[in-house]
Amino acid sequence: MTTVDDVSRPSRLAEPDEGITVEELRLAARNHGIPLEALRYDVTPAGLHYLLIHYDIPDLDPATHAVTVGGAVDRPLALDLAALRARPRVTRRVTLECAGNGRALLHPRPVSQPWLVEAVGNAEWTGTPLAPLLREAGIAADAVDVVFTGADHGVERGVEQDYQRALPVADALREEVLLAYEMNGAPLLPQHGAPLRLIVPGWYGMAHVKWLRAIDVRTEAFDGYQNAVAYRLRRDADDPGVPVTRIEPRALVRPPGFPDFMSRTRVLRPGPCTLDGRAWSGHAPVVSVEVTTDGGATWAPARLDDQSGGEFAWRGWRHEWTAEPGRHVLGARATDASGRTQPVEQPWNRGGFANNLVQRVEVVVLPG
Ligand SMILES: Nc1nc2c(c(=O)[nH]1)N[C@H]1C(S)=C(S)[C@@H](COP(=O)(O)O)O[C@H]1N2
Ligand SMILES: [Mo]
């Protein structure tokens, strides 16, 4: 392991046959995914929601914590939790997905948090809308970016920093963006950003800044690490790339039957079997889900559940299948109203972001 890293050196790609390293394992043991059987719940229980934490969980006191609104504003503000709770209260179901979901399945593998497909959750977030607060503070006419700063601190490729991410002003002013203090009807848990976090419906996880302590309006583009260096779609290390923003469409199958302990291969008895799962997109509503039971050779339309969870929540789907003895590879493919769908070739980029390649669920159907 290198102890003194340097941002001028690119992050590492694994060698062609290199297995998961101890460093990746260490990250994976901290940052867990959703157990795929928990796709059954419309609202993901807090303890089953995926988790991604770059540094350490900071220890904040909800009784004294306050968030400031400053920078290019007419009237800087500071609000504690009581002040935020006294403001209009909104609850939204929002599918959160880590931008690195699918990274460990890429060839070559970008070395970082090694997600397979499980970095997703669909919780109910309660808080107060951000836009009215920004308007009360009076943002400058020439404002460009709004920077959100967390109370967590660390170093990444040699750059010491508080976790900070900016949104373009127009995105920060969207009415669905929340300053959230509750998850699933209870105060935020320490690991999910207690006592306050940002929720940016439709965007990949990195935008939803946890342990939020400052909101700064800027008249120049923010060039902090998480915007300018990390979270960009780059072809190679020299490509300036484009920012990672909204969630690409994805469907997941809730693995049927029961698992083999080590291989996680699914074991099923033959006969009729209702396959189900979830589908989401941060660009536009999901309009169709197709299911394959032969590793992608053929596809059949799934039935979609209603969109009662709201426009930012994942959508349930189901499909009737007659399981015949033998080995099968299941998968599902979501398409959204913008026409985006899931690729059949891996969408490779240097950081391993937004890999929404169709999932492969290996099943063995027992003899009758
Ligand atoms: N302050 C802060 N906010 C953060 C992070 C972080 O490390 N620090 N991680 C981000 C990333 S990369 C993701 S995917 C989501 C994960 O949110 P969750 O752990 O509540 O699921 O939080 C985001 N917000
Ligand atoms: Mo993430």
UniProtKB/TrEMBL annotation:
What residue stretches are annotated with the Moybdenum cofactor oxidoreductase dimerisation domain? 271-364
Name used for this protein in its record:
Sulfoxide reductase catalytic subunit YedY
For this protein's source organism, the top of the classification is:
Bacteria, Bacillati, Actinomycetota, Actinomycetes, Micromonosporales
GO MF term (any one) = sulfite oxidase activity
Q: Which InterPro entries did the record assign?
A: Ig_E-set (IPR014756), MoCF_OxRdtse_dimer (IPR005066), Mopterin_OxRdtase_euk (IPR008335), OxRdtase_Mopterin-bd_dom (IPR000572), OxRdtase_Mopterin-bd_sf (IPR036374)
For this UniProt entry, which segments traverse the membrane? none
Keywords of the record, alphabetical order, are: Metal-binding, Molybdenum, Oxidoreductase
Metal-binding listed as a keyword: yes
| UniProt-listed GO biological process terms | sulfur compound metabolic process
SUPFAM superfamilies found in the cross-reference section: E set domains, Oxidoreductase molybdopterin-binding domain
Name any cofactors this protein relies on: Mo-molybdopterin
